[in-house]
Amino acid sequence: MISANLSAIFYLISGILFILALRGLSSPDTSRQGNYFGIIGMVIAIVVSFLSIGSFSVSIIYVFIFLIVGGSIGAFIAFRIPMTAMPELVAGFHSLVGLAAVFVAVAAFLNPQAFNLGTPGNIKLASLIEMSIGAAVGAITFSGSIIAFLKLRGIMSGSPITFVGQHYLNLILGIVIFALIFYLCKTQSDSFYWTVIVISFLIGVLLIIPIGGADMPVVISMLNSYSGWAAAGIGFTLENTALIITGALVGSSGAILSYIMCKAMNRSFVSVILGGFGAENNSDDTKDKQDKKPVKSGNAEDAAFLMKNASSVIIVPGYGMAVAQAQHALREMVDKLKKNDIKVTYAIHPVAGRMPGHMNVLLAEANVPYDEVFELEDINNDFANSDVAFVIGANDVTNPIAKTDPKSPIFGMPVLDVEKCKSVLFVKRSLSPGYAGVDNELFYRDNTLMLFADAKKMTEDIVKNLE
Amino acid sequence: MEIDPFIFRLSIFILSIFIGYYVVWSVTPSLHTPLMSVTNAISSVIIVGAIIAALAGSSNTFNTSNIFGYLAIILAAVNIFGGFLVTQRMLQMYKKKKKNKK
Predict the structure, then answer these.
(1) How many CB atoms lie within 10 A of CB B64?
(2) Is A395 helix (H, G, I), strand (E, B) or coil?
(3) Which helix (H) or strand (E) holds A139?
(4) Which of A18, A329, B55, B62 lies most in the core, judged by the most C-beta atoms within 10 Å?
């Protein structure tokens, strides 16, 4: 058995290794090394937790069995998961962190002696508050992530579910939780503790159901943040530095990502949380207009011809590319273009896809070198000097209406200036509006050629025509 | 008057939020997905609490608290292995131009 002081120092070291793990992600070159730091930090933390207990009974064998079972499941998932399913995987993993936090908080409540927190019915006041908060945030993370997972997986409809008085209900439930924690501290009665957890599960569900599909990048980042705060809450209960540091890191990481995502959509965090975006409100009058305006549509041959004669092409991928699994076909197309000495770059909008950085991972999977992929602010000026913009599976993020029509729900959102290209190729299955429910003005521009098809099929056809 | 140890932990917590703030802003946007999966993996360090809960008590009989500990170990282990490995898998895919170009 090692002393409490020594183990605290080891926990500090593993906390520092976690900081280095995140630091590594500042560039793809250092990122792999960063991941190893993270793994070492985790190994140190686990080993120290065993050593700090010291007295090994038979039950340690069970711990190893459970570790191996869980680890094998995790490893299996990690190797088998297709890259297009990353958003739901991350949502699923968040739910596990949340539930684990709840379980640890429950275990600490039932057996406070094990953590030096007092005895059942006589738990230290501060610990009681900490474990209630940890359990509540963990429970919200769990049920919220489950809903996010179901929505991303398509098991549950991605459209927002709203009802009258929803926000007041959430507010009341939030106040009830604080009241319950207060009475829990006064009476130490376990029924208050269980009620806190049950209501928190309910809040998690209620928080996520009104949020629409296109806001998923914010939701995932937000749940990421919650899982961090839950871990930090448990860290305070267990008086464990590694958990406190990690919780703070993860919590602020998720918060920053949510902020970046909100800014990329020009929406306030509050309005995303209140939800309802993407509901069918103004679709009727846009439909009338649609019928009147002429749309130019073409086939793969036209597209191939246009691109062959271009000297520079910018590719704008979006969620549709992920759904159609078109990234490999796209890369093939780009290879063909490069052989003809055409300059090809990729432009990525921060909220393209269903989670931060979603498109970058898919392109990386298709062996697209990361130095050909650019973020919105780095490439937006290049559209004016390029010949062809190839929009594949993106919609709202290219809509010029965001710059011109103050009445539009997406007004003010930073968009990619694809319309400034000499010609725009727009791969899409139909003229239907995107997730924001807004008609894309780009469809009706003179320099736009619509390619109505599945993204993958169309790209493959273009490849054939480029031969 | 002595300072409550809670204050020390609170200081660590708040300073770590600041570290997190600066470190995460320096993460390149193209790695935001791996950032999420790796933060997910490291937040599973909560397994430390699960191990202590599972091994608490002396005998070979299990009380409810132990069982919750074991359940938390499984969940956290899925996350640790799954999170780090999927991050590794993603990071392997990020390649630069030229080097691997035929």
Answers:
(1) 11
(2) coil
(3) helix A125-153
(4) A18
CA A73, A79, A85: angle at the middle one, nearest 5? 95
* Side-chain half-sphere CA neighbours of A418 within 13 A: 39
The C-alpha atoms of residue B28 and residue B98 are separated, in whole angstroms, by: 21
Type of residue found at A93? F
- Kindly report the nearest CA distance between residue A428 and chain B, in angstroms: 25
- For this structure, is A396 an active site residue? yes
* Cβ distance of B54 and A249 shorter than 8 Å: no
Nearest CA in chain B to A346: B30
Smallest CA–CA separation between A164 and chain B, in Å? 34
Tell me which residue in A53, A62, A224 faces B52 most closely, judged by beta carbons: A53
CB B78 within 8 A of CB B47: no
- Determine the longest span between alpha carbons in chain A, in angstroms: 79
What is the C-alpha to C-alpha distance for residues A168 and A201, in angstroms, rounded to an integer?
A: 17
Interface probe, candidates B10, B16, B19, B63, chain A, greatest A C-beta count within 10 A:
B16
A429-445 pLDDT, tens digit per residue, is 877 776 666 778 888 88
Give pLDDT tens digits for B8-45.
999 999 999 999 999 999 998 889 999 999 999 999 99
Residue B56 has pLDDT above 70, yes or no: yes
Kind and range of the H or E element at A449? strand A448-452
Query: Token pair for residue B49?
Result: 């609490």
Q: What tokens were used for A296?
A: 């130019």
ipTM: 0.92
**CB within 8 Å: B75 and A251:** no
Under an 8 A CB cutoff, do B19 and A49 touch?
A: no
DSSP state of A54: -
Q: Compute how many other C-beta atoms are within 10 angstroms of the C-beta atom of residue A204.
A: 27
Alpha-carbon distance of A359 to A336, in angstroms, equals 21
Distance CA A193, CA A185 (A): 10
DSSP H or E segment with residue A293? none
**Mean pLDDT value of segment A240-244:** 91
Residue A344 is inside which H or E element, if any? strand A343-348
Find the CB nearest B24 among A31, A50, A256: A256
How far apart CA B21 and CA A360 sit, in angstroms, is: 23
Secondary structure (3-state) at B97: coil
